[in-house]
Amino acid sequence: MSARSILEVAEAAAQAGARVLRERYRDSSLEAEVKAEYDYVSAADRDSEAAILELVRGAFPEHEILAEESGRLGASGAEYEWLIDPLDGTSNFLQGVPVFAVSIACRRRGRTEVGVVLDPLRDTLFTATRDGGAFMNGRPMRVSARAGVEGSFLATGYPFRARAALDVYLDVFRDAFLRARGLRRCGAAALDLAYTACGSFDGFFEFRLSPWDIAAGALLIEEAGGRVTDLDGGERYLETGNVVAGAPGVHRELAELIARHASEERIDELVPGATGQPAGAC
Hints:
Blueprint: H1 3-24, E1 33-36, E2 39-41, H2 43-59, E3 64-67, E4 71-73, E5 80-88, H3 90-95, E6 101-108, E7 111-119, E8 124-129, E9 133-136, E10 139-140, E11 153-156, H4 166-179, E12 182-184, H5 189-197, E13 203-206, H6 211-223, E14 227-229, H7 237-240, E15 243-246, H8 248-259, H9 264-270
Parallel strand pairs: 3-5, 11-12, 11-13
Antiparallel strand pairs: 1-2, 3-4, 5-6, 6-7, 7-8, 8-9, 9-10, 13-15, 14-15
């Protein structure tokens, strides 16, 4: 099964989900439902996911799927697994803030092979395949040439659903704020990662995201020449939800900065039992 055939389905599925989101954006009849504290869902999330799943399951019925709203579908332990976020940035979407995305990744035997992030309102499509490069609307993209954190333009997300780690996060934020040229919180981690991949942001960090928030964007960054790790410099970010990413020099210095205040063990102590759960930007 070729990465190209998987990518074609992922792109088509993302466009199907995006059509739903464009139709429902600023729909006054939409009501937010509370899944957990500070974690919201709407009919737009569910309808977008249904449109995505129809295409993915139709093309690859034997694949396993982990989708934000539907959970696990298909045969457990399948060779291929899809990670699907039908609406990353639900709070923005419901408030009428035009910053949200569809994020779709496909993994083979535990390694992400295809990633797609689509900004529906701007019709900006970010794609990557393992060892095949990363692209924005079909044009090759690279991470920024920034050498370190000093003077960098960074993105982050506030740990609203990991509030016990807030003081640690604020210590990291302070150090980053004092060295960076700018620090932004846009409210859609998949887009933050995508814009880090294309060099708009020099780096990104956040605690306790979900795997469907990270997988596609992480591949975009890696294929664009950047680095993505957990807080300890390892590759368990999909499991822990703690992400440090960026251009190589920025990633290195950002990881060093974060290590003064946080580690995987420290976050686990503060937010036990949250690993891999929806605890980051909604």
